[in-house]
Amino acid sequence: MTSTLASRGMRRLATPLAALFAALVLAGCATPPPIDLQLDTPAQYKESVKPTSDRAGAPGDLAPAQDSAQWWTVFQDPQLEALVARAADRNTDVQQAAARLAQARALAREVDSARAPQVGLNASAARGAGIDKAQGARPASLFSAGLGASWELDLFGRLAGASRAASLDARSREMLLQSTRLAVQSETAQLYLAVRALDDEARIVRETVDAYRDTLDLTERRQRAGDVGDLDVERVRTELAATESDALAVQRQRAQVEHALAVVLGELPTNFSLDSTAWRTALPKIPAGLPSEMLARRPDVQAAQWRVQAAQERIGVAQAAWFPAIALTADGGYASTDLGELLKWSARSWGVGALFSLPLFDGGRREAGVQSANAEFDGAMAEYRAQVLGAFKDVEDQLSALRLLAQQSRVQAQAVDSARRATRLSDVRYREGAISQIDLLDTRRSELRNSRQALLIKAQQYQATVALVRALGGGWG
């Protein structure tokens, strides 16, 4: 007799255990496989900046501050550092990215809350026939008040997967906020350096204007003495007017860049001005042999990785929609047909239950959901690959630009020196009457052109350095 009862008990226990085992097997089927985010990339970049001196490889010269968030300090410009700090506080792009991050985090908490028991206060009032059988078909009222609770058993990981996906989305937003900050920092630096370059260009043009005025004064004196004609005077006046026009164009361009910088700082261009000072910003040297693994710290690349993992989690969520949903419910409170009797002990009521739900026919909705999740994952993977490829291109572009600009700067410096010597010699010979005015004007134009070209190359070196810092995710230390 005892063995019979024991065997019956085992059979009763085996049925729910088998059902639980089957559920766990199905849940395993809903778990997406791991993904490999490693791409076939070289260990180092093709372009490698060579040290330009024996000391160029010294860590103190090459490495930015230990905190990559302070990369701009390598330029050793206090005014630049102050502007970057102002942009961090007031830039509207950073504020928008921070708001989107806060929204993503709130959404993650909202999605995760579905995994916890839900408790609520409820009250109802109804009137109708047949509510109270003791009264027959006569209309009656029913009042109720109490607490209700429900908890969905996440046997197949649908709720957990949705929570993980939302959390990964929030991490992606956090990386995008960092990417926005880096973009604002680099844009602030580039606009500031552009202003300083325009200040230097304006100085060069003003010096040329002064030189043309001296030449015009000399030519007018020689005209009054009968040594030259009116044509020579008009030629110098033409060159003077054209150079003055160039000076005004440089001022106009500087004003526009200054206004753009004000917007990046989150300030009104009307209230913002940047004094013209000497350009003393240091140009940091770039170490040779930068490892390509540095790209892994780029915030936009990390954001793309989190988006891929979030898309993978959503595949599991979509697959779990094919499995049953089981929820436990409980409620307790008071119910009465007489409002005056509602809160009495005799009107108490309670109930517990379990809900089982499994859609049998939904017109292909669940299948479409799985296909949509797979397509989202494929798109996220393609976006990640594109992000990495674009990051490699950005770094290679700036490394090659810096290498070639360094060579171009050395050659252009020789051209500037030669042009200046030619101008000095031509000016002396013109005053002595040994050469014509056309020769003097040609040498001055050549000096101005070469000086401005050298300044343009210098400005491009600074711009490329900032762009490289941004491409590397905030420095190379």
Question: What does this entry look like structurally?
Answer:
By secondary structure, the protein is α+β, with helices and mostly antiparallel strands. The protein has 2 domains: 35-116 and 156-323 and 365-471, Outer membrane efflux proteins (OEP), CATH 1.20.1600.10; 117-153 and 324-357, Single Sheet (Outer membrane efflux proteins (OEP)). The protein is built from 9 helices and 4 strands; from the N terminus they run H-H-H-H-E-E-H-H-H-E-E-H-H. It has helices at residues 2-29, 59-62, 78-90, 92-112, 158-224, 230-264, 299-320, 365-431, 437-471; strands spanning 118-129, 139-153, 325-336, 348-357. It is elongated and about 130 Å long. This is Efflux transporter outer membrane subunit.
What is the topological layout?
Layout (H helix, E strand, L loop, with lengths): L1 H28 L29 H4 L15 H13 L1 H21 L5 E12 L9 E15 L4 H67 L5 H35 L34 H22 L4 E12 L11 E10 L7 H67 L5 H35 L6
Antiparallel strand pairs: 1-2, 2-3, 3-4
Helix pairs in contact: 3-5, 4-5, 5-6, 5-7, 5-9, 7-8, 8-9
Rg calc: 38 Å
Order of helical and strand elements: HHHHEEHHHEEHH
Our count of helices gives 9
Quaternary structure: single chain
Helix content: 55-70%
Shape: elongated
Strand order of the largest sheet: 1-2-3-4
Integer tally of domains:
2
Keywords: Lipoprotein, Membrane, Palmitate, Signal, Transmembrane, Transmembrane beta strand
Membrane topology: Lipid-anchor
InterPro entries: MdtP/NodT-like, OMP_efflux
Family: Belongs to the outer membrane factor (OMF) (TC 1.B.17) family.
